């Protein structure tokens, strides 16, 4: 990954409700300059995008198991988030032409972000 224009702030947030973590991501993005990697867990939650088939793919009543059901602004179907599942949310400054060379650029970028998360976890002593 190219050298960032600003430092990367890595933060362990503990267990955070999904909506609260999403609001924090939006606020950090809106504030502009710094880059962040948020590491956290969520309380039990199912998220779903506008392409979700809840009748087919949601196999339980979230309320009966103490989980939230949250519509999010993405494609895709149903995703479970919960305690014990480490989540990393990178909020990074991208080069202006990111992804202009198609899937190869996107795949390379995803691998770079994956390595960023691995390196950050190693520095925090997690995942050895």
Task: Give an overview in words.
30% of the residues lie in helices and 27% in strands. The relative contact order is 0.20. It contains three helices and six strands, in the order E-H-E-E-H-E-E-E-H. It has helices at residues 18-31, 54-57, 103-123; strands at residues 8-16, 35-42, 45-48, 68-71, 78-81, 87-91. The chain is α/β, with parallel strands linked by helices. The strands form two sheets. It has a three-stranded mixed beta sheet with strand order 1-2-6, sandwiched between helices. The chain has a three-stranded mixed beta sheet with strand order 4-3-5, with no helix packed on it. It is globular. The mean pLDDT is 85.
Number of helical runs?
3
Helix content: 25-40%
Main sheet specs:
3 strands, mixed
Distance between the termini: 23 Å
Tally of extended strands?
6
Strand order of the largest sheet: 1-2-6
What is the C-alpha radius of gyration, as a whole number of Å?
Answer: 16 Å
Taken in chain order, the helices and strands follow as EHEEHEEEH
Could you tell me the mean pLDDT? 85
The low-confidence runs, each spanning 5 or more residues with pLDDT under 50, are: none
Taken as a percent bin, the fraction of beta residues is 25-35%
Structural class: alpha/beta
Shape: globular
Quick summary of this structure?
The chain is 30% helix and 27% strand. The chain is an alpha/beta fold.
Tell me the layout of helices and strands:
Layout: E1 8-16, H1 18-31, E2 35-42, E3 45-48, H2 54-57, E4 68-71, E5 78-81, E6 87-91, H3 103-123
Descriptors:
128 residues, alpha/beta, three-stranded mixed beta sheet, 3 helices, globular, 30% helix
